[in-house]
């Protein structure tokens, strides 16, 4: 037994026959010391609610509860894991609530319900096959500041590098702009392949994202999204060519925003994209 009175994660995986499914992007953590480190990286959870996606057999879930999270709301798509997670809920007197479903399709605020004024932190070892899509969903919410206070998420290291990438780098792209436009982002530490069952082919990284208040002159989110997507869909082309996909002559708008028509998407800062989006919004 571990300090929380529950069996070791490897035993849980064996007892419930939880062989990881590639189709669900599953790789299970088994080290509770490591999951508690991830939980601590999310900040003080003592009086907070945590929203978790893809808890699997409950390694990170247990780490969050061991670090004092007052309540964890988890969404799990794999029905096989629900019984194992029920054991965790029982051990922590119902502090864990588990929903069976697809996190991409669910209304998180409706699931969490009344927060009693508590902060909500998203902390998750995201399934590899939906991690980026979930991040985009959260970072492109219409209302900003959003319903969450912070995100502490595990991604493939390559994805983490894209989130924090700076202009003129190979990793800089749509994901970089959409995240950095609204939040402060940083990679905290890496997770080795050997920490998982089965070991993935890549190293993972823990990324911390803290939303900022939106500026009074911020462009509409949908306008920015369309602009950034068009620019990076043909990232090797000059903007005067790639932005024609938006249906209007881009040259006057580039000129008004103070951007060279010969520039390429990877050369623009997040601020440049914001200024250009305001021109497209007129």
Q: How does this model look, in words?
A:
The model has no long low-confidence stretch (mean pLDDT 94). The relative contact order is 0.11. Strand 3 (71-76), helix 4 (82-91) and strand 4 (96-100) form a beta-alpha-beta unit. Helix content is 35%, strand content 18%. Helix 2 (32-41) crosses helix 3 and helix 9 packs across helix 12 (270-281). The longest helix has 13 residues, at 221-233. It has two domains: 9-211, Vaccinia Virus protein VP39 (Rossmann fold, 3-Layer(aba) Sandwich); 221-281, rRNA adenine dimethylase, C-terminal domain (Helicase, Ruva Protein, domain 3, Orthogonal Bundle), CATH 1.10.8.100. The protein has a seven-stranded mixed β-sheet. With 282 residues, it is α/β, with parallel strands linked by helices. The protein is built from twelve helices and nine strands.
Strand content: 15-25%
The number of domains is: 2
Q: Give the CATH topology of the largest domain.
A: Rossmann fold
- Strand adjacency order, main sheet: 4-3-2-5-6-9-7
Structure at a glance:
This protein is α/β, with parallel strands linked by helices.
């Amino acid at each position: 037994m571990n300090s929380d009175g529950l069996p070791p994660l490897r035993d849980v995986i064996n007892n419930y026959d939880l062989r990881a499914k590639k189709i669900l992007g599953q790789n299970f953590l088994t080290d509770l010391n490591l999951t508690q480190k991830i939980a601590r990286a999310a900040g003080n959870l003592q009086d907070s609610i945590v929203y978790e996606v893809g808890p699997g057999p409950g390694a990170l879930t247990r780490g969050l509860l061991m670090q004092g999270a007052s309540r964890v709301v988890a969404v799990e798509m794999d029905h096989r894991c629900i019984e194992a997670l029920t054991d965790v809920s029982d051990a922590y007197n119902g502090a864990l609530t588990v929903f069976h479903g697809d996190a991409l399709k669910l209304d998180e605020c409706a699931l969490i319900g009344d927060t009693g004024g508590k902060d909500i932190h998203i902390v998750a070892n995201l399934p590899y096959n939906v991690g980026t899509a979930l991040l985009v969903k959260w970072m492109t919410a219409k209302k900003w500041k959003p319903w969450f206070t912070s995100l502490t998420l595990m991604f493939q290291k390559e994805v983490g590098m894209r989130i924090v990438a700076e202009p003129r780098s190979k990793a800089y792209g749509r994901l970089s702009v959409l995240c950095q436009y609204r939040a402060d982002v940083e990679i905290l530490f890496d997770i080795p392949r050997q920490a998982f069952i089965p070991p993935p082919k890549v190293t993972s990284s823990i990324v911390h994202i803290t939303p900022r208040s939106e500026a009074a002159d911020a462009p509409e989110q949908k306008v920015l999204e369309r602009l950034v997507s068009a620019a990076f869909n043909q990232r090797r082309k000059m903007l005067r060519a790639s932005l024609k996909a938006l249906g209007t002559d881009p040259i006057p708008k580039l000129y008004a925003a103070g951007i060279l028509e010969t520039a390429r998407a990877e050369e623009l800062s997040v601020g440049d994209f914001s200024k250009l989006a305001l021109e497209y919004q007129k």
